[in-house]
Amino acid sequence: MYNKYVVENNSSMKKILVIGSSGLLGSRIIEVGRDSYEMFGTYSKHKTDAENDYHLDSLNRKQTFAVVKEVNPDFVIDTHAITNLDYCETHPEEAWNVNFEGAKNIAEASENTGAKYVFLSTDNVFDGTKETYFETDKAHPLNQYGKTKVAAEEMLEASSIDFLVIKTAVLYGIGGIGKPSFATWLISKLENGEKVKAVTDQKNNPTFVDSLAASILKLCEKNARGIFHVSGKDCISRYEFSLQIAEAFGFGKEMVIPVSSSELNQVAKRPKAVNLGIGKVEKATGMNVLSIKEGISMFRKQIVI
User: Do the domain assignments include residue 61?
Assistant: First the structure.
């Protein structure tokens, strides 16, 4: 498999436990880091073929503590969550349980074994009223998904847990079992000759998942602590993102139909534009954040249509 990223680590093989290793990000963290770390994973619904994977229900506190204790990792990277904004809005209790209570269990199990806890958060913690958001900006979520993530972040900040929070946005790439990323879903639709609607009035920083995985691992290597924004460099609309993917994969631009958010009748309120400032992570890791063109070029090399 095409893999540009090789994470160098001069220390002895440290252990990383990835919560949600069957998902897009979790699977890529394991792929990118496997030559430098001893990798372990957990899954909930989608069983993997990996030898070092454990079934885990994060709401089962006893099981969570037992799995983390057995692996005894140096780092626990928690990628598990309910991320569908509309589902979180219509199932607020379930979203709270998984995204907050589950994260709390994993974080406290990590502390119990002396592991650093790495929590994946989102640009949806912001309301989109500021030109650029930095790590020091106050959260103001507009939807239930964002609220669950803010609550988890506040729980970590109020604790004695050794933590790292990664805020990111709109992941794309290949990997994982189950739900495809927006980009792979889009390509599948275009392949079938279906036109796709994409909104023009919601802007984010699309993030190539391998680049995100490599940045997370580098921050672990540096033993970084606190909050980091890790995303793509360019803040563009989902429509512009879709056009660039269509062009890269040889589909006509007419296959992507521009629409406004109001036309889609989305349940959860979305921020209009969240541009994540990424200077802190570039300085901490020494890695350049990818432009959308660079990320899509790497993505194109990974996928065959």
Answer: yes
For residues 158 and 277, what is the distance between their CA atoms, to the nearest angstrom? 24
Q: 92: domain range?
A: 15-179+205-232+274-290
Cβ–Cβ < 8 Å for 135, 126: no
pLDDT of res. 11: 47
What rounded mean pLDDT belongs to the chain?
92
Residue 9's CB: how many other CB atoms inside 10 A?
A: 15
Provide the pLDDT for residue 8. 53
Q: What is the pTM of this model?
A: 0.92
- Residue 29 in domain: yes
Beta strands in the chain (DSSP E): 15-19, 38-43, 53-55, 75-78, 116-122, 163-168, 171-172, 196-199, 203-204, 207-208, 226-229, 236-237, 256-259
The two structure tokens encoding residue 232:
């793509």
Mean pLDDT calculated for residue range 22-43: 93
